[in-house]
């Protein structure tokens, strides 16, 4: 027998060094963690949401402690019992001799090893469990749905709130028993209770009892799991085209699961009986029988039923279950009250009854006058060029659409706030003092009617009716400073003692803009850091010594952080999913960010499951909007309207869907966090919009679940699809568009979110869906269903008809040059009366220089097979329907240039009729027209290089005139 090998011992110095390093690591980790938690607490305390902070923290701590103690403690107990009842004497064998060295190494350190195992397993289990804090709160504060599932007769709250928690408990139960079993086996093996290679008895009595108990517990948990598997059938994906229990699940798998419950229970009893019998043959036989049963009746039998009973007549067999899936999916995605309207049933799509449509256009006082010509996804550079004022300001990549009632007239506006753009600071503005204490906020609100552009020298520009610094215009803004916005990424240190010189840049001074006016923040937002302790805290948190050394940090200082409106709402309400597109509105004179927030669940019975981020994505996701997390869900409600004050950062959450059980559950868990809907100010209610991300999810569901007949659903008859965005090079879905228009059957225009839907794998239009944003009809969804056999053009086909048109194609060639490029705006679909759909698309021209920006140059219109292409919507309508059709359009009269520094406006160039080109001005020959065109392009290039915006506007106007002269001269050339 070889003597055991001794374990090398560490020197005292090495132990001291290792101990010191360990202490320092623990100390730094603890300081960093505590600092993060404290800074978080200060933010919640500032915003008034400490209830959320403490509830989440306590819930996480509770789950961490319970799961950690249960997992680590029970596993350690099992290992201790295995060691405690180890055999005193072990048979001599080569196996035992080899194990002796391990026993001698472990004996002196068994307490340390056992403690380490318990701590490591406990920490791992605790960290895993605390991440499920929402599951526990939902279980703890269950709110009934008031609806039962059709199979088990249970309230839906069982599946949404209780079932996930039971599954979580089962998962931890299996993990604990399995870890205890592994730990016991290893301990028994090392200390001789389990002898794999030693002749004679393989297990001691104590080892047999302990392993029998653990195996019995494992199988007993399996019996419980089989029981809950029965309820889990409502989430089955066995059905090829639908979610939920299918024919096979109910008629084959459900009885099998019930049988397996009793089989597993018998097997567990056999293991427990082995405590007395002390013979593994009986429980082993029971276990083999359970495994065979699970394979035969749990796997093979359902597969046979599916293959030979269901598939030959699946549409008939699955009919009842498809009906369940359709009803549940519509309910889960809030699509139970959709209004379907058979639209344009007499219209062939190609033959236009000109007189009838002309009469409808002339009588239209709601849709055509509000047709939007400004695309908020294109005009960010234009807003920047005309309203940036200083480099420290900026506008988001995607602007927003909202509506305002001015002088009794409601219009939709393209709106934006002039934010502080942290990324635009110049090199000398990047010092800590400048970045965090001087340039602290943006200033101003900018709005332009969405159906108007300016004529004259600055032709094609938005008509900024609210603009400039200080802010002036038709929307009254009393507090224009923007301390919280989408572009603000840094923290700011604000505030100063009474009488101190203001240091925060506020706005330029004078007409030349060379000087500046400073300001000191006096709002309620921010965390006070007047004490040394808090200054030290933020110095550690941001790793910035200036919190301790700079004179800009004083007794009156505050730190503003978490300044993005979306991030503030997500932090204040972590149980909500926030829409990716906040938008600003002026409410009672203050700029307020409005956000939509959703409650979601992935446990709604029979409802189709989707990936949230994928379902809510479109061609513009990520360009000025935030993509939603790509988490699985099958239930969603727009339950909360949130606001963030742009000046003081105040976050308010308002209950919007008062019947949502998920929100009611969280309102019980976080009392006082969400305010009742009745508390919403009327001015705020007038600016709510139907949220884009929810609408994108719903339209995707509608492409399949508008079909009510289960057999048609199974056969995929009349399926739709979301069209690709025709104005983008990618094949991503076309985004929905906000419009102010009159829906068929409505007495007046309403603000709504709309989308076209194509036939499946075809480019023909099948439906047009809209969701109302008007307070009195909010959320009412209408679907205009077009005749299935009528080739109405879809967006891609309309776009193709535009770019291949004989009048459009030459202009695109000219616009897409070395000095400029054509930019297509949003292709809007507008229902006109009861007969058809009108497509309207703005065409912008943008220079290729560094300081260039797009200006509206043309408007394209499509109705049936007719295309209009002109300088204004009114002229384009006249081309399609005849003289007088465009009288209702807002741009039938040119909008005067409203900028104070504009030159005397020149007469707008006359539009080019697509069928009869205008004669060349003053008989300009073709070579002269080409020369004038080249000169205009050169003037545009020079204006872009110099950054002279007024010159750019004049150059674009000259370019338009030169193009028209060239077209006229070309048309006047003799043919043949």
What does this structure look like?
This protein has 976 residues and is of the alpha+beta class. It is 42% helix and 17% strand. The protein starts with 11 loop residues before the first helix and ends with a helix. Strand 32 (836-847) and strand 33 (855-863) form a beta hairpin.
Provide tags for this entry.
five-stranded antiparallel beta sheet, globular, six-stranded mixed beta sheet, 34 strands, single chain, alpha+beta, 976 residues, 5 domains
Briefly summarize what is shown.
The chain contains 27 helices and 34 strands. It is of the alpha+beta class and 976 residues long. The chain folds into 5 domains: 48-197, no CATH class; 203-301; 354-366 and 793-972; 378-563, no CATH class; 567-785, no CATH class.
Task: Produce the secondary structure layout.
Layout: H1 12-47, H2 50-84, H3 94-106, H4 110-130, H5 133-140, H6 156-190, H7 205-232, H8 247-277, H9 281-310, H10 314-317, H11 319-332, E1 339-342, H12 354-363, H13 380-387, E2 393-394, E3 400-406, E4 409-417, E5 419-420, H14 432-438, E6 442-443, E7 445-449, E8 453-454, E9 461-462, E10 466-467, E11 472-473, E12 481-482, E13 492-494, E14 504-509, E15 515-519, E16 527-528, H15 532-542, H16 546-549, E17 558-560, H17 565-572, E18 577-578, E19 583-587, E20 590-601, E21 610-611, H18 612-615, E22 632-633, E23 635-645, E24 651-655, H19 661-669, H20 682-685, H21 692-705, H22 710-714, E25 720-721, E26 737-741, E27 750-759, E28 765-772, E29 781-785, H23 795-803, H24 808-815, E30 820-824, E31 828-832, E32 836-847, E33 855-863, E34 866-870, H25 873-881, H26 926-946, H27 949-972
Helix pairs in contact: 1-2, 1-15, 2-4, 2-6, 5-6, 6-7, 7-8, 8-9, 26-27
């Amino acid at each position: 027998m070889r003597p055991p090998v001794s374990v090398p011992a560490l020197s005292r110095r090495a132990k001291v060094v290792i101990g010191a390093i360990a202490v320092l690591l623990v100390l730094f980790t603890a300081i960093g963690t505590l600092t993060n938690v404290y800074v978080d607490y200060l933010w919640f305390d500032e915003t008034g949401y400490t209830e959320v902070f403490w509830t989440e923290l306590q819930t996480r701590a509770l789950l961490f402690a319970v799961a950690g103690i249960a997992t680590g403690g029970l596993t350690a107990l099992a290992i201790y019992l295995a060691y405690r009842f180890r055999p005193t004497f072990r048979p001599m064998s080569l196996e035992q001799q080899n194990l002796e060295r391990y026993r001698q190494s472990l004996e002196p350190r068994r307490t340390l090893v056992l403690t380490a195992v318990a701590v490591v397993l406990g920490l791992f289990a605790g960290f895993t469990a605390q991440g499920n804090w929402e599951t526990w709160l939902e279980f703890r504060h269950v709110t009934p749905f008031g609806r039962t599932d059709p199979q088990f007769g249970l309230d839906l709250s069982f599946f949404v709130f209780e079932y996930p928690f039971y599954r979580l408990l089962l998962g931890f139960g299996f993990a604990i028993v399995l870890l205890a079993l592994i730990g016991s086996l290893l301990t028994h093996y090392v200390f001789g209770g389990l002898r794999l290679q030693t002749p004679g008895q393989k297990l001691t009595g104590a080892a047999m009892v302990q392993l029998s108990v653990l195996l019995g517990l494992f199988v007993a948990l399996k019996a419980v799991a089989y029981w809950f598997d029965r309820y889990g059938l409502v989430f089955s994906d066995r059905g090829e085209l639908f979610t939920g229990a299918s024919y096979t699940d109910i008629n084959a798998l459900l009885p099998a699961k019930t049988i397996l419950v009793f089989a597993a229970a018998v097997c567990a009893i056999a293991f427990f009986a082995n405590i007395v019998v002390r013979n593994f043959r009986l429980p082993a036989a029971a276990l083999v029988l359970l495994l065979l049963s699970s394979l035969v009746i749990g796997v093979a039998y359902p597969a046979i039923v599916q293959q030979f009973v269901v598939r030959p007549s699946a549409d008939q067999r699955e009919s009842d279950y498809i009906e369940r899936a359709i009803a549940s999916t519509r309910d889960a995605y809030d699509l139970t009250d959709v209004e379907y309207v058979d639209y344009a049933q007499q219209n062939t799509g190609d033959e236009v009854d000109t007189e009838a449509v002309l009469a409808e256009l002339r009588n239209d006082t709601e849709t055509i006058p509000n047709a939007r010509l400004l695309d908020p996804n294109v005009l960010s550079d234009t807003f920047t060029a005309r309203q940036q004022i200083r480099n420290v300001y900026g506008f988001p990549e995607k602007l927003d659409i909202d509506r305002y009632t001015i002088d009794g007239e409601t219009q939709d506006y393209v709106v934006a706030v002039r934010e502080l753009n942290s990324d635009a600071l110049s090199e000398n503005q990047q010092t800590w003092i400048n970045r965090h204490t001087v340039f602290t906020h943006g200033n101003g609100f900018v709005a332009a009617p969405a159906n108007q552009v300016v004529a004259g020298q600055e032709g094609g520009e938005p008509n900024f009716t609210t603009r400039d610094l200080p802010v002036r215009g038709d929307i009254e803004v009393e507090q224009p400073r923007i301390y919280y916005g989408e572009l603000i990424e840094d923290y700011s240190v604000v505030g100063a003692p009474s009488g101190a010189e203001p240091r925060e840049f506020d706005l330029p001074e004078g007409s030349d803009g060379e000087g500046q006016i400073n300001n000191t923040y006096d709002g309620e937002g921010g965390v006070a850091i007047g004490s040394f302790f808090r200054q030290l805290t933020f110095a550690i948190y941001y790793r910035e010594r200036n919190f301790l050394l700079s004179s800009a940090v004083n007794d009156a200082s505050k730190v503003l952080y978490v300044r993005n409106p979306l991030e503030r709402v997500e932090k204040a309400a972590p149980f909500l999913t926030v829409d990716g597109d906040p938008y600003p509105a002026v409410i009672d004179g203050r700029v307020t960010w409005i956000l939509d927030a959703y409650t979601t669940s992935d446990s709604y019975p029979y409802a189709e499951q989707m990936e949230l981020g994928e379902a809510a994505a479109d061609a513009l996701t990520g360009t000025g909007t935030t993509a939603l997390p790509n988490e699985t869900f099958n239930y969603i409600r727009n339950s909360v309207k949130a606001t963030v004050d742009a000046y003081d950062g105040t976050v308010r959450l308002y209950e919007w869907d008062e019947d949502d059980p998920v929100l009611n559950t969280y309102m019980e868990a976080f009392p006082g966090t969400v305010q009742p809907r009745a508390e919403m100010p009327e001015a705020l209610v007038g600016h709510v919009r139907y949220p884009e991300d929810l609408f994108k999810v719903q339209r995707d569901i509608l492409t399949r679940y508008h079909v009510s007949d289960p057999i048609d659903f199974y056969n995929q008859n009349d399926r739709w699809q979301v069209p690709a965005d025709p104005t983008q090079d990618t094949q991503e879905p076309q985004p929905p568009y906000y419009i102010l228009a009159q829906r068929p059957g409505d007495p007046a225009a309403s603000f709504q979110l709309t989308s076209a839907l194509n036939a499946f794998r075809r480019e023909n239009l099948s439906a047009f869906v809209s969701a109302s944003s008007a307070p009195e009809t909010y959320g009412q969804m209408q679907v205009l269903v077009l005749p299935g056999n009528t080739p109405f053009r879809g967006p891609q086909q309309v776009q193709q008809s535009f770019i291949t048109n004989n009048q459009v194609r030459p202009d695109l060639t000219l616009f897409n040059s070395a000095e400029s490029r054509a930019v297509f705006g949003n292709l809007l679909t507008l229902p006109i009366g009861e007969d058809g759909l009108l497509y309207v698309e703005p065409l912008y021209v943008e220079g290729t220089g560094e300081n260039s920006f797009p200006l509206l140059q043309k408007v394209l219109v499509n109705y049936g097979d007719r295309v209009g292409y002109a300088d204004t919507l009114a002229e384009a309508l006249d081309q399609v329907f005849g003289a007088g059709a465009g009288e209702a359009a807002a741009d039938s009269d040119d909008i005067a240039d409203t900028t104070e520094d504009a030159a005397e406006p020149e007469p707008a160039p006359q539009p080019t009729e697509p069928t009869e080109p205008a004669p060349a001005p003053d008989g300009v020959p073709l070579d002269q027209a080409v020369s004038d065109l080249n000169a205009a392009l050169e003037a545009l290039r020079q204006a872009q290089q110099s950054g002279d915006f007024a010159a750019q506007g004049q150059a674009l106007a000259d370019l338009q005139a030169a193009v028209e002269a060239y077209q006229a001269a070309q048309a006047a050339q003799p043919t043949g």
